[in-house]
Write a structure and sequence with these properties.
Layout: H1 5-12, E1 15-21, H2 28-37, H3 58-71, H4 75-91, E2 94-101, H5 113-129, E3 135-143, H6 147-164, E4 169-175, H7 187-195, E5 199-204, H8 211-217, E6 224-227, H9 239-247, E7 252-254, H10 256-261, H11 273-278, E8 283-285, H12 297-307, H13 312-325, H14 330-343
Parallel strand pairs: 1-2, 2-3, 3-4, 4-5, 5-6, 6-7, 7-8
Bound molecules: N6-methyladenosine-5'-monophosphate (6MZ).
Length: 348
């Protein structure tokens, strides 16, 4: 379609993406290449993405990830997908990206979990060499579906990479289907991760039934919260949960389109962005899964601005604040803030 002045503003706004799952971020163009590599799987694009106006249940979304995992199951696939995703974020004006992904073992292609992470790191390095204009760091994901034993193994893997990746691996993400496994059982693994210096980004209260779990995990405390959709009392959360989040000033990663399309939020105007933003709490707009939910970060900023009536200054403050909420070490944060100052749109 035609690019308007507003589109240009959001595209050129320097942005930091802090909540992006690698295999949920695969674009239509990359998906076509993957499908062509594995025609025998009979996978169509409609099985891996939710186009505009459509909705699915969270359960259906997790089915989609299984389909995508069938298409991305070798070193070659992971290298291509990561490089494509990094380039696409850069094209969208994202200057700093924290990518996350769950290490997977694939017997068929001989892929190990270590090799999985090494390949992503290799792709990040190649993107840098190719002078793609973006700083990328990596968070190792724990899929709650796999239970506490695998979680502990994954933490150990993340620790090894934190020490050997020249600072590319910064932390740990707890994600996966919230209907599966009690997050409480993950506590020993998460505590270990925290003690070893890994930053923690935890999906919390993505569905209503996770009150007790969130209460416990907030005591760690996490360094950032993913979604936090059902933390506040107006949607069945509690004052005690909100107090913990506010007192510890834990930034929340908010993914508007994702939450509307997977129906954990009934409509854009009812999104909990409003609740936290009105309290002056650090809010970070993110895409979650730009491939599955057919969005990009410019669009998420533009949506937030139009739905919650944010002026350009407020939008700028949000993107600037995202740098502050990142897990980047202090020197990189300072460098990014100088970058932001250089790229500040003239209309402001
Ligand atoms: C929880 C999610 C998610 O790790 O294979 N993931 N976990 N809630 C969500 N809301 C929609 N979206 C994605 O990327 C896919 C994996 O990310 C997690 C799930 O564990 C999914 O299998 P990776 O790169």
């Amino acid at each position: 379609g035609m690019e308007t002045d507003a589109d240009t503003f959001y595209r050129h706004l320097p942005k930091a993406e802090l909540h992006a799952h690698l295999n949920g971020s695969v674009s239509f163009a990359t998906m076509k290449k993957l499908i062509a590599r594995k025609p025998h799987l009979n996978i169509e694009h409609s099985m891996t993405a939710i186009s505009s106006g459509q909705r699915r249940t969270l359960e259906e979304c997790f089915q989609m990830f299984k389909v995508i995992h069938q298409l991305v199951d070798s070193e070659e696939d992971i290298l291509m997908v990561t490089k494509d995703v990094v380039r696409e974020f850069a094209t969208d004006g994202v200057k700093y990206l924290e990518l996350r992904s769950t290490p997977r073992e694939e017997a068929k292609s001989g892929l190990s979990k270590t090799r999985y992470v090494e390949t992503i790191i290799e792709a990040i390095r190649q993107s840098k060499q190719d002078e793609v204009d973006i700083d990328v760091r990596f968070l190792v994901s724990v899929d709650r579906r796999n239970g506490p034993r695998v979680a502990m193994e994954t933490v150990k893997l993340a620790e090894d990479f934190m020490l050997s990746s020249d600072g590319l691996v910064l932390g740990l993400d707890l994600s996966g289907d919230p209907a599966v496994c009690n997050g409480k059982d993950m506590l020993p693994a998460l505590q270990r991760a925290r003690n070893s210096g890994l930053k923690l980004a935890l999906h919390l209260s993505e569905v209503p039934s996770q009150k007790e779990e969130s209460e416990i995990l907030l005591n760690l405390p996490p360094d950032r919260i993913g979604h936090g959709t059902f933390l506040h009392p107006e949607v069945g959360g509690s004052d005690s949960l909100v107090d913990k989040v506010c007192k510890q000033k834990i930034p929340i990663e908010l993914c508007l389109t994702s939450n509307v399309k997977d129906q954990t939020v009934p409509s854009y105007d009812k999104h909990h962005f409003q609740y936290w933003y009105d309290r002056g709490h650090p809010c970070v707009l993110c895409t979650d899964d730009k491939g599955v939910f057919c969005t990009d970060l410019s669009q998420e900023y533009q949506l937030a601005a139009s739905i919650f009536a944010l002026g350009p200054e407020a939008v700028w403050d949000l993107s600037h604040q995202a740098v502050q909420c990142s897990f980047a070490p202090e020197p990189l944060k300072q460098q990014l803030k100088r970058r932001w100052a250089e790229l500040r749109p003239q209309v402001l």
